[in-house]
């Protein structure tokens, strides 16, 4: 899914950086998309935890990193 999105970016002439080889540009875009998705998912998780705690149903909370499926 990410690879398809990045390929679409590389196919767009107005976005593709001609001075960089596509292999390097692809790595930059894949990394950027993954970081962005992780940030969005992390923020959504914290919002869900805050709502859960606001209702008083949790007595303890342990946040552990988990793998994100792309």
Total domain units: 1
Overall 3D form: elongated
Percent range for β-strand residues: under 5%
Rg, nearest Å:
18 Å
Question: What is the CA–CA distance across the termini?
Answer: 7 Å
Structural class: mainly alpha
Report mean pLDDT, rounded to a whole number: 74
Please mark out the parts with pLDDT under 50 across 5 or more consecutive residues, or reply none: none
Largest sheet, if any?
A: none
H and E string: HH
Number of strands: 0
Alpha plus pi helix count: 2
What does it look like?
- This protein is mostly helical and 70 residues long.
- The chain has one domain (2-54).
- Helix content is 61%, strand content 0%.
- It is built from 2 helices and no strands.
- Helix 1 (2-11) crosses helix 2 (22-54).
- The longest helix is centred in the middle third of the chain and has 33 residues, at 22-54.
- The termini are close together.
- The model has no long low-confidence stretch (mean pLDDT 74).
Outline the secondary-structure elements:
Layout (H helix, E strand, L loop, with lengths): L1 H10 L10 H33 L16
Helix pairs in contact: 1-2
Summed up, what is this model?
The protein has 70 residues and is mainly α. It is 61% helix and 0% strand. The termini are close together.
Observed structural traits:
single chain, mainly alpha, 2 helices
């Amino acid at each position: 899914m990410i690879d398809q999105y990045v390929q679409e970016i590389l196919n767009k002439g107005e976005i593709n950086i001609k001075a960089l080889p596509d292999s390097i540009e692809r790595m930059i875009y894949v990394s950027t998309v993954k970081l962005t998705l992780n940030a969005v998912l992390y923020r959504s998780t914290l919002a869900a935890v805050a709502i859960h705690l606001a209702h008083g149903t949790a007595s303890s909370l342990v946040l552990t990193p988990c793998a994100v499926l792309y």
